[in-house]
Amino acid sequence: MGCQERGFLAATEDGGNWDRARDQEATAVLIGGPLAPGINGMVRFKDVPGGVEVFLHVEGLPPYQPAREGRPPVGPHGFHIHEKGDCTVGDQANPFTAAGAHWNPDHQPHGNHAGDFPVLFSNCGLATMTFFTNRFKVAEIVGRSVIIHEHPDDYRTQPDGAAGRRLACGVIKRKE
Ligand SMILES: [Cu+2]
């Protein structure tokens, strides 16, 4: 969607005088699966003028490993919204496939999915990040999931950025 169609600039210049009654917040608790059981973290989504602010705090990410012998590096970690709010582990060797594909409501190529997010940089296992996206409002993502991947996202391989297996999953729930 275009910036003007979404009213992004107008909303920002408005200095925060938006419809507060409709603002929403959601959270997802990230829990590591069998490939990275030490991961735990929290993602918070907050409606702001023109889009959503996303806050992330996660600990227990695995140590960085450089690419070798044709294997991609471990970290920085691909991070996305996936379609389904189902963090069933399933296959221990290839967990969290129940979360489905990347959330991509407007049928964009990977790299421009509404659910494509910045990669996570681990600092001795800790990553914190705050960013803005104008691609959705909180109400659209409640009931979906966030996934942390083993490998970096290259933002061009279709349909998943070659980010590899799924290390952690969290269901996005409306904040009470
Ligand atoms: Cu993903």
Present the secondary structure layout.
Layout lengths: L7 H6 L11 E8 L7 E9 L2 E9 L19 E4 L44 E7 L4 H4 L3 E5 L16 E9 L2
Antiparallel strand pairs: 1-2, 1-7, 2-3, 3-5, 4-6, 6-7
This protein binds copper (II) ion.
Copper (II) ion (CU) binds next to β4 and β6.
Describe the structure.
The chain has 176 residues and is mainly beta. It is 6% helix and 29% strand. It has 2 helices and 7 strands; from the N terminus they run αβββββαββ. The protein has helices spanning 8-13, 138-141; strands spanning 25-32, 40-48, 51-59, 79-82, 127-133, 145-149, 166-174. A 7-stranded antiparallel beta sheet has the order 4-6-7-1-2-3-5. A hairpin with a 2-residue loop joins β2 and β3 (51-59). The protein is globular, with a radius of gyration of 16 Å. The two termini are 30 Å apart. The mean pLDDT is 90. The chain binds copper (II) ion. Copper (II) ion binds at residues 78, 80, 82, 102, 147, 149, 163.
Alpha-carbon distance between the two ends:
30 Å
Shape: globular
**Which bin fits the share of residues in helices?**
under 10%
Radius of gyration: 16 Å
Unreliable spans: none
Strand order of the largest sheet: 4-6-7-1-2-3-5
Number of strands: 7
Biggest sheet details: 7 strands, antiparallel
The distinct ligands, each listed once, are:
copper (II) ion
Oligomer: single chain
The SSE order reads HEEEEEHEE
In what range is the share of β-strand residues?
A: 25-35%
Question: Helical element count?
Answer: 2
**SS-based structural class?**
mainly beta
Sum up the structure in keywords:
7-stranded antiparallel sheet; mainly beta; 6% helix; 176 residues; binds copper (II) ion
